[in-house]
Amino acid sequence: MAILTLDNIHRGLIAKSQVEVFQAIANTAVKNGYATHADAVIQGLKDREKESTTGFLDGFAIPHTKNAAIQRPGIIVQTMENGVEWSSMDGQPVKIAIAMLIPESEAGTAHLNYLSKIAKMLMHEEVRKQLTHAQNEQEIFDILSQYLGE
After folding, report:
1. Is residue 103 part of a domain?
2. Which residues are CB-neighbours of 86 under 8 A, at least 6 positions away?
3. Where in the sequence is the domain holding 23, given as residue range(s)?
4. Closest CA to 118 of 96, 100, 101, 136
5. All residues at 6 or more sequence positions from 142 whose CB lies less than 8 Å from its CB, including other chains
6. How would you write 109-122 as a 3-class SS string?
7. Who's near 30: CB < 8 A, 6+ residues apart?
8. Cα separation of 141 and 146, whole Å?
């Protein structure tokens, strides 16, 4: 099964906190068969965030976790209606979270490769603009697929 599907992309979450974003990501992970327990995914994302921020630039974040509750690798995208405080590198609130979920048993180079691809992709201002201005889930999916080689 694909690491990214159209069903893994959701737009327009109204969230007041990072934890609410993590909850939406975890719910999608469980609903789409990537994880068995939402609470474990949320805790994994929170624990990773304590190490250092996953907030990137221009309203993007790349939260990620490897966790026993995750059954298979997945990328889940959540956009927020309003920015959410994330302690980002540039101090900007996050409007788009591209989450990477990794099974504990598979934490290896393939998943680091995806994380690296996402980070490199977001280094390009043009890509950040395209994702920010995408009108629907399909546009987001097409942009990400192009860079992830899905």
Report:
1. yes
2. 18, 53, 54, 55, 61, 93, 94
3. 6-148
4. 100
5. none
6. HHHHHHHHHHHHHH
7. 36, 37, 38, 41
8. 9
Within-domain flag for 1:
no
- In angstroms, the CA 122 to CA 97 distance is 11
Cα gap 49→36, rounded to integer Å = 21
Give the separation between CA 55 and CA 87, rounded to whole angstroms.
Answer: 6
* Structural domains counted in the chain: 1
Residue 76 within any structural domain of the chain: yes
Residue 61 belongs to a domain with what CATH number? Answer: 3.40.930.10
* Beta strands per DSSP E along the chain: 9-13, 60-61, 64-67, 74-84, 94-103
Q: Which two tokens stand for residue 123?
A: 């280094």
127 in a structural domain: yes
Run means of pLDDT, 10 residues per run, the chain, 150 residues: 92 96 98 97 96 93 93 95 92 96 78 86 95 96 88
- 9-36 residue pLDDT tens: 999 999 999 999 999 999 999 999 999 9
Contact 145, 130 (CB under 8 A): no
What's this model's pTM, rounded to 2 decimal places?
A: 0.95
